[in-house]
Amino acid sequence: MTFDLTPEQDQLRDAVRALGRRYGHGYFVEKAKAGEHTTELWAEAGRLGYLGVNIPTEYGGGGGGITELAIVCEELAASGCPLLLLVVSPAIAATVLNRHGTEEQRKRHLPGLADGSQKIVFAITEPEAGSNFHRLGTVARRDGDGWLLNGRKCYISGVDEADHVLVVARTEDSSTGRLKPALFLVPTDAAGLTRSKLDMEIVSPENQFLLYLDDVRLPADALVGESLDAGLPALFAGLNPERITVAAMGAGTGRYAIERASEYTATRKVWGGRSIGSHQGVSHPLAHAAVQVELARLMIQKAATLYDAGRDLEAGVAGNMAKYAAGEAAALAVDTAVQVLGGAGMTTEYGVATLLGAVRAGRIAPVSREMILNFVAQHVLGQDKSY
Ligand SMILES: Cc1cc2nc3c(=O)[nH]c(=O)nc-3n(C[C@H](O)[C@H](O)[C@H](O)COP(=O)(O)OP(=O)(O)OC[C@H]3O[C@@H](n4cnc5c(N)ncnc54)[C@H](O)[C@@H]3O)c2cc1C
């Protein structure tokens, strides 16, 4: 057993940290408040190869795994730039296409995802179905050689920045007549696809949208994979990378908040010569949050290692646990940081309250803490399914 990164992974961590710090949380918040995107940071990360670390070299990527992509997510977040689209485009979309796309789809999309010139976002959530993906109502019907999609999706991140949306829809299985899931690459400018931006209480340069698919006509090759049978495995392929990288983003955000708060409490003096951090009522909550973040990081490392070793089922358990732990730890760390900073904690200048919405959302999305507890109760503890 080893807890050390390889020298290459260490270098990657240092290099991404340097990039993130050059931009910093001030940049992230400025972009969010101006209603703009972190275009410069995304483009530079793409040029430097950080967005494609998990994409095979033959498609322009770095040939690494989810361990490397988790490092990128964590370090950018630890610099105050938690980029949600890293979880969607390189983690989910690139993995799905690499594992289950056709060779033509890999050639067409992976190089752009790797250098950041293309973004593909992911749409599964629906207003009626919510957490219950068995109730998905977006349907894809055969239309000559191609497909006709109808349905609605909600909370879809980054549609305004993306070239394509990877849409999860149901198709009719001709042998059984039952509906089964399939993934479709839908261009964001496709006729019949409209969107409306949701007002979210999150300070973020990345936006969420309601999507309406009204008779969206797609060519045959919009279906991900060679046949409809690719649908379910393709859908599952995205889940572990999603959970591991969103956990890494949470752990990085927690580190960022604790670092900001510790710097402050070590130097702020309001009772004579002692720093406020010398009071255990201030330092213990911070230390407790640091323990929770570090525990989450261990679980992320385990989940990423299992995933990269091809042990998908074990990675599923570890990835869910990592996501749960990191979501809780990030929310605790940011809330604690706000508290120990006092009034400064609520200012934009000190840059922690700006993360409250994002870490709160991290306990709901992309999979809620309750659905993870359901998963663990059922698959680890052997309990009957409650729903
Ligand atoms: C910032 C943000 C970004 C997002 N980005 C995307 C995206 O890019 N693409 C995408 O497809 N989706 C996205 N989502 C949607 C997200 O994945 C869903 O919000 C999440 O899966 C929960 O679904 P829901 O909101 O419909 O909640 P519901 O399913 O309505 O659940 C509401 C509450 O009830 C609980 N609950 C529901 N069922 C059970 C049960 N059986 N047992 C116990 N508790 C239960 C849930 O845990 C939750 O707390 C995003 C959401 C947010 C907030």
Mean pLDDT: 96
How many helices? The count is 10
Radius of gyration: 21 Å
Q: Provide the succession of SSEs.
A: HHHHHEEEEEEEHEEHHHH
Which strand-content bin applies to the residues? Answer: 15-25%
Stretches where pLDDT is under 50 for at least 5 consecutive residues are none
Number of distinct beta strands: 9
Fraction in helix: 40-55%
Measured distance between first and last alpha carbons: 38 Å
Shape: globular
Q: Which distinct ligands sit in these coordinates?
A: flavin-adenine dinucleotide
Biggest sheet descriptor = 7 strands, mixed
Helical/strand content category = alpha+beta
Furnish the topology, listing elements before pairings.
Blueprint: H1 7-33, H2 39-47, H3 66-78, H4 85-100, H5 103-115, E1 120-123, E2 139-143, E3 146-157, E4 164-172, E5 179-187, E6 193-197, E7 208-218, H6 231-267, E8 269-271, E9 274-275, H7 280-308, H8 312-340, H9 356-361, H10 369-379
Parallel strand pairs: 1-4, 2-4
Antiparallel strand pairs: 2-3, 3-7, 4-5, 6-7, 8-9
This protein binds flavin-adenine dinucleotide (FAD).
What's this entry about, in short?
The chain has 387 residues and is of the alpha+beta class.
Structural features, described:
There is one protein chain. The chain has 387 residues and is α+β, with helices and mostly antiparallel strands. The chain is 49% helix and 16% strand. It has helices at residues 7-33, 39-47, 66-78, 85-100, 103-115, 231-267, 280-308, 312-340, 356-361, 369-379; strands at residues 120-123, 139-143, 146-157, 164-172, 179-187, 193-197, 208-218, 269-271, 274-275. Flavin-adenine dinucleotide (FAD) binds next to strand 1, strand 3 and helix 10.
